[in-house]
């Protein structure tokens, strides 16, 4: 019987252990998609309680843990409610032993070990002791120290087009912190013309650019200006939540009328929505290509499913799920519309539905480009899929249908400063897979060559992919 989560956790063969410890373990982290706060990084935030850092602070926190607690019957007051910080922590401790087989059990213990030196299994039995010890250690930790201790080279936050990027500018000027913190361009509120927030958001965007947006010409002008503003502030990546992929051919005149109709609070039909979304996504893609950016498409999230909880505690509080639906044809048309004019930027495709791995891989690799290794990427296992099984399936699909060796590796997609252990988790899964290929005689026993592939996937590929235009 193996020891619980020892140094060779998830590494089932001697070859896997060599690949991880000699090649993967000490590689820096390029976290190219996350949701942590640039303000917290700049101000080098100290956390008052481990509950704030690890679990919940108001309605901001770890949705993964919240969902597990709810599924364990924990009352909402101990999750996003008014219970004390200690009581919330104890309810998580009460829940954690029941997460057997869930990645939360592994993530929790990786974080306990790496940041707090706690190696024994976490439960209600030792929760009081852990709470005191973690809070004591937390007095010596800050946002920047956690990042540095995690061997992070680069962080790409998620930022709205109207953001002034104040804290990114300040971080760039701060020579005392050598981790690169770059913004990402997230224009979901512009793309989703059917959202109730669309009209107020266009008014906000108008205020930022200093002129009224009243049609397609002014909207495209504003978006171009904001992209260029982000570019001069070191942004080289965009991010799109394409929960539903839509595309219909359109003319500029049609799009202009659709915008005017929306701004007049008139209801749009599905065809109009598809035409507008497709036009804006393609327009944005061309701007990204012009500036050498990378675009990310996050597909098939079904958000805010519980109207009851939506009314009680608001959106984005852990009530999202995996979506289904047809994506191949509209996504193909979007990519082809960009490729047909040779304006398709580097693109990463993620789906929250694991059944789409092969679909996205085969579609993406139709648009490879000479001289650009790995231009099109099947994104890492994302959100509900960033667990051992999800990672293995994504790696297998990419191996079967593309070039795993050109993969840009893992991201955290997290709001927590402790989530960098997810890179360790991924690296262990990756090394175990490659170790199996060698041990099974499916690939030569060339440890140095495969070890360099491991290094590339862990860090080097992402560094080249995102930083080539800086």
Structure description:
- There is one protein chain.
- The chain has 470 residues and is an alpha/beta fold.
- 49% of the residues lie in helices and 9% in strands.
- The protein has 20 helices and 11 strands.
- It has helices spanning 14-24, 38-42, 50-54, 63-71, 85-95, 103-116, 127-138, 143-149, 166-173, 188-191, 198-209, 216-232, 252-263, 270-291, 307-313, 328-339, 357-364, 388-401, 421-439, 447-467; strands at 29-31, 56-57, 60-61, 152-156, 180-182, 237-242, 294-299, 301-302, 321-322, 346-351, 376-378.
- The strands form 4 sheets. Strands 6-7-10-11 form a 4-stranded parallel beta sheet, with helices on one face. A 3-stranded parallel beta sheet has the order 1-4-5.
- Helix 9 links the parallel strand 4 (152-156) and strand 5.
- The mean pLDDT is 97.
Cα shape: globular
Query: How large is the radius of gyration?
Result: 23 Å
Order of strands, widest sheet: 6-7-10-11
Count of distinct strands: 11
> What's the oligomerization state?
single chain
Overall structural class, as computed from helix and strand content, comes to: alpha/beta
Distance between the termini: 50 Å
Given as residue ranges, the uncertain stretches (5+ residues, pLDDT < 50) are none
Strand content: 5-15%
Instruction: Please tell me the overall pLDDT.
Output: 97
């Amino acid at each position: 019987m193996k020891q619980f989560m020892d140094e060779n956790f998830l590494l089932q063969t001697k070859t896997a252990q060599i690949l991880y410890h000699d090649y993967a373990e000490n590689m820096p982290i390029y976290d190219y998609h996350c949701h942590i706060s640039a303000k917290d990084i700049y101000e080098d935030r100290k956390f008052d309680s481990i509950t704030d850092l690890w679990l919940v602070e108001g309605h901001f926190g770890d949705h993964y843990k919240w969902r597990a607690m709810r599924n364990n019957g924990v009352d909402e007051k101990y999750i996003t409610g008014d219970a004390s910080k200690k009581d919330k922590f104890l309810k998580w401790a009460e829940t954690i032993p029941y997460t057997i087989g869930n990645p939360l059990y592994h993530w929790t213990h990786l974080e306990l070990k790496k940041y707090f030196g706690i190696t024994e299994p976490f439960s209600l039995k030792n929760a009081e002791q852990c709470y005191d010890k973690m809070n004591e250690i937390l007095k010596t930790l800050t946002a920047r120290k956690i990042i540095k201790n995690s061997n992070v080279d680069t962080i790409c936050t998620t930022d709205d087009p109207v953001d002034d990027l104040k804290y990114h500018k300040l971080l760039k000027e701060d020579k005392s912190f050598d981790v690169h913190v770059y913004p990402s361009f997230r224009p979901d509120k512009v793309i989703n013309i059917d959202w109730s927030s669309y009209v107020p958001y266009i008014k906000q965007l108008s205020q930022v650019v200093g002129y009224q947006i009243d049609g397609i010409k002014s909207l495209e002008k504003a978006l171009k200006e904001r992209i260029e503003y982000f570019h001069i502030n070191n942004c080289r990546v965009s991010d799109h939540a394409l929960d539903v992929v839509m595309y219909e051919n359109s003319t500029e005149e049609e799009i202009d009328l659709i915008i005017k109709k929306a701004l007049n609070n008139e209801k749009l039909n599905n065809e109009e929505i598809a035409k507008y979304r497709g036009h804006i996504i393609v327009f944005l893609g061309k701007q990204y290509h012009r500036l050498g950016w990378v675009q990310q498409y996050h597909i098939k999230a079904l958000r805010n499913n519980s109207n009851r909880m939506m009314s009680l505690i608001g959106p984005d509080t852990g009530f999202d799920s995996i979506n289904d639906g047809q994506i191949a044809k509209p996504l193909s048309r979007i990519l082809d519309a960009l490729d047909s004019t040779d304006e398709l930027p580097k693109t990463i495709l993620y789906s929250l539905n694991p059944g789409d791995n092969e679909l996205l891989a085969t579609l993406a690799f139709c648009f490879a480009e000479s001289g650009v290794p790995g231009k099109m990427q099947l994104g890492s296992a994302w959100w509900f899929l960033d667990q051992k099984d999800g990672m293995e399936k994504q790696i297998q699909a990419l191996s079967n249908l593309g070039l795993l060796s050109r993969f840009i590796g893992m991201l955290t997609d997290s709001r927590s400063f402790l989530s960098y252990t997810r890179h360790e988790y991924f690296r262990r899964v990756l090394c175990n897979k490659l170790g199996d290929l060698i041990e099974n005689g499916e690939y030569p026993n060339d440890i140095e060559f495969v070890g360099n592939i491991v290094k590339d996937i862990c860090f080097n590929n992402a560094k080249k992919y995102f930083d080539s235009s800086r």
